[in-house]
Amino acid sequence: MGEGARRANRADLPRLAELRRDALAQLSAGRGGSLLAEQHGRPEPVEQTLARMLDDPDRAVWVGTLDDQTVGYATGRTATLSGGTDLGVVEELFVEPDARGVGVGESLISALVAWFVDRGCAGVDTVALPGDRLTKNFFESSGFKARLIVMHRDLRS
Predict the structure, then answer these.
(1) ω into residue 45 within 30 of 0, thus cis?
(2) 123-147 pLDDT, tens digit each
(3) Whole-prediction pTM value?
(4) Which 8-state DSSP code applies to residue 12?
(5) Strand, helix or coil for residue 67
(6) DSSP string spanning 77-102?
(7) Are 86 and 78 in contact (CB under 8 A)?
(8) Phi, psi torsion values for 78, nearest 5 degrees
(9) What is the domain partition of the chain in residue ranges?
(10) Could you tell me which residues come within 8 angstroms of residue 23 by beta carbon, excluding any fewer than 6 positions away?
């Protein structure tokens, strides 16, 4: 099996949209996932959101492949902090469940980190939902460490 990652293009939009919908459904099932999806403005139609991401020079969209089949994606952006430091932000990273554990996620995160390095970022942030041990373990194995815990109190109930 050959896993890898490459920059996404407009021809990838239908498959990216399908993967993104799967990712959002999985995200929404986790504690805090629905609010996270809403907070980051991931509206339908996802094709338009993804097309805007592809056109944005401060964003990167990658597809993860396994035997030349697209089985995952990752998106990232840069953010400039108030002191002028550039920070990379992994916005989304998703690999289909049947394609996990074979290196596709690692290829995606490596591609994004290399893009952040090329852009002069001082570091990279991402998030994992509370209780999502697999995601936390994945990021830790990729060199990430927790630096912030966000606390929330729901006022709607």
Answers:
(1) yes
(2) 999 999 888 899 999 999 999 999 8
(3) 0.92
(4) G
(5) coil
(6) EEEE-TTS-EEEEEEEEEE-GGGTTS
(7) yes
(8) -105, 150
(9) 3-141
(10) 73, 92, 94
Secondary structure (3-state) at 30 = coil
Q: Answer left, alpha or beta for residue 9, where phi above 0 means left and psi between -120 and 50 means alpha.
A: beta
Gap between the Cα atoms of 111 and 114, Å rounded: 5
97 falls in which pLDDT band (50, 70, 90)?
Answer: very high
Q: What is the CATH number of domain 3-141?
A: 3.40.630.30
Residue 89 neighbours by CB distance under 10 Å: 18
Distance between CA atoms of 22 and 27, rounded to whole angstroms? 9
Residue of 95, 60, 58 whose CA lies nearest to 76: 60
Give one DSSP letter per residue of 118-143, joined into a string. Answer: HTT-SEEE----TT-HHHHHHHHHTT
The answer to whether 129 touches 39, Cβ cutoff 8 Å, is no
User: The tokens of 116 are what?
Assistant: 């952040």
What's the pLDDT tens digit per position in 28-51?
Answer: 888 888 888 777 666 678 899 999
